[in-house]
Amino acid sequence: MTKAHNYRHLGRTWQSRPALPHLNLLMATILAALPLLAPRASAGDEITVLRGSMSTRDPAELNYVQSATDRVSTWLDQLGLPHRVLEDSTLSRSALTFTRVLILPYSPTLPRGHHSTLKTFLRRGGKIIVFYSSDAKLADMLGLRLGSYALEKYPQQWSSMHFVDPSPRGVPSVIAQTSRNIRPVYPHRRDARIIARWHDDRERPQKEPAWVISSDGAWMTHILLDGVTRQKQQLLLGLIAHFYPAALEQAATHALRTIGRMGPYRDYDDFTRTIRHTPMPKPLRATVSSKLSEIERFHALAEEQYRANDYAAVLKSTQVLDQLIVDVYARSQPSRVGEVRALWEHSGMGLHPGNWSRTMRTVAHAGFTDLLTNMLWPGQAHFESRVTPPSDAVALHGDQLAQCIRAARSNGIRVHLWKICWNLERASAPMVRKLMSERRLQQTHNGATVNWLCPSHPKNRDLEIEAIADALRRYDLDGLHLDYIRYKDSTTCYCDTCRAEFEKRNGSRVHAWPRDVRSGILKDQYNDFRRETITTFVARVKETVREIRPKTQLSAAVYGSYPSCRTSIAQDWAAWISKDLVDVVYPMNYVSSTQEFLTYLKRQVALPRATGRIYPGIGVTASESRLDAVATIEQIQAARAAGAGGFALYELNGVLREEILPVLRLGTTRP
């Protein structure tokens, strides 16, 4: 009884008496520590881009995953949308704690266990934007039904996406993109609907959806490719803002803050001040002054719209502003007379297959002088060759080289046959099997065979020379442009022919092959042998050109990282210049930084006898670099300042045609 009474008393005492000072301090400390123990969001957690590395085991697809992820991330950066890129190997419920929108640029099939993670993410209100996936479970989670893989039935069947009402606000009505294959999805729940359909190049609607949206996310039936960048950025922003409205304010703030920050200009004030003091001819000055007045008017309007919190209007105004500023900057750039302005054309069929005249008009109108067209590989030719098998392009559109030269002549353009050396990527399977059986392919130091002709094999050298000689005899070429004029990489070649030829050169047998020449006592001699093998072949090509068509220029696409390429791929192109084995070289200086580009170039033009013979390659759409019009102008002007005899842009495609060439023509390449 006494114990019970005491307990009741203790209870009453605890409730009625004030807390002791030390207990107050303890509780305050615990409460203060709770936020530190809990997960905390950081800038960019709301938007997550998932790199789908685990969603495929195909190495080629892994490259596709990487490029698709990089493209989306770059566009988000340019939009000013904080985000993070998350490897799918680290995907978990906790990793998505603060994510509002999850973007899958390319995840063919989700790894096991990720479906339950994404279901939890959707249940708590998250949204998913998917580009081209084969994952039926993922489609079902978003209220969609996955269709079958589809390949185009005719060229440009899917060449644009047309959006229908109602679509998310800010999404463009039409976006051009040619996709050769798609994986359709269809609405499967009441809240899901088609918001865009594919149209072909004649504007005829196709039955396949381009975009489907539901309350849980949006799905594109292909991925977003390069080209019409501004419109695709608008699309990305419109979809994200549809699910996460705060993104609109973020993008508007960034757009207004960064107006005028491009090229050499620090900000809007720096741009307007500098342009006003830039010397230019009177007619141009009048045009620029008029455009500056328009720029000031739109800038004031955008600031007013921002103060009114009308962020969608701010974005429209700043887009106009950006276009006007780029226009003025481009017009203020000087042109140069007498330089070589070349374009690498990779398809070998021009911008419009079957219509070389249209392509050449585009090239000439942009102020370019030379076209390097990719039409001859060891395994196929885009023209009537007596040595090399014809490609499908010949059957579809006829002799591409003859048509290209004819169209070029009427537009004042010089044509260079772009010759891929050694690489059998486009060779038929029977041809590769035959060459392999004859032991004519390159081998790695581990004994693995790669689909490249071995440069030391006499029959391979003869085959390449015969193909070149045949083209020179039959076509009035302005130039022959060698590419892949090297070994595949530092691991090749260690085949039986290389061993025999090296032993003949050295006059003694190699006992520990390939160890002695790979890393042992004969390493330096073997590197010399590899370089000599390539260099003597270049010399033979030069003799062939001089004999058949002496006025044809011989050039080569080479690695910019000289002299390291002498050892890695046996490409000693500085020696080719000093010995007059080539007329000019095009170092592939594919970097985004103009300063880095200039660093490469200064080293190159300083090489012996290199003056006027270095035409740097600018990687506008190369995988190593993605340049907008302003960055392209900067690198062209840097090439001129460094004393280059010309330059080449990689590559002539839709991006160059639509986004780069029209801007260059305003000033930098003004005819």
Protein model, in words:
The protein is of the alpha/beta class. It folds into three domains: 198 residues, 3-Layer(aba) Sandwich (Rossmann fold); 82 residues, no CATH class; 247 residues, TIM Barrel (Alpha-Beta Barrel). Helix content is 44%, strand content 16%. α7 packs parallel to α10. The longest helix has 26 residues. The protein is globular and about 80 Å long.
Which terms would index this structure?
single chain; 671 residues; alpha/beta; Rossmann fold; TIM Barrel; 3 domains; 9-stranded mixed β-sheet; 8-stranded parallel β-sheet; 23 helices; 16% strand; globular; disordered N terminus
- Name of the CATH homologous superfamily of the largest domain: Glycosidases
Strand content: 15-25%
Please give the alpha-carbon distance between the first and last residues: 110 Å
**Major sheet: size, sense and barrel closure?**
9 strands, mixed
CATH topology of the largest domain: TIM Barrel
Shape: globular
User: In order across it, which strands form the biggest sheet?
Assistant: 2-1-3-4-13-12-11-7-8
How helical, in percent, are the residues?
40-55%
Return Rg in Å. 31 Å
- Classified by CATH, the class of the largest domain is Alpha Beta
Structural class: alpha/beta
